[in-house]
Amino acid sequence: MQGLWVRLFTPEAEVIAWGEPLLRIMGILQIPPALALAGSLRGAGETRSVLLAAIVGGWVVRIPLAVGFGVWAGYGILVVWLTMVLDWVVRALLMGWRLTHLDWPHIRL
Description:
single chain; mainly alpha; elongated; 109 residues; 75% helix
């Protein structure tokens, strides 16, 4: 049963071996965006907070770590994909912090 979803697309053993752990990472990656923090902030008029979280997550966390560890240090594609998870966790933490520190009684929707 291992690699079942990848086998739907290819019979090649090497692709299946690489594809299964990457699909597991993508499954984990679905959790932070599903929290809907970005939509909540945008609805409250906090679009800059969402932008700043994306900049920090993408340009400060994901790209440097993916290039540094995945490419330059030679850890490979799994580390590059794991940096995507870390990027979204950082975004979720930043947006969650901002969401809890809004002055809700004074927000005009």
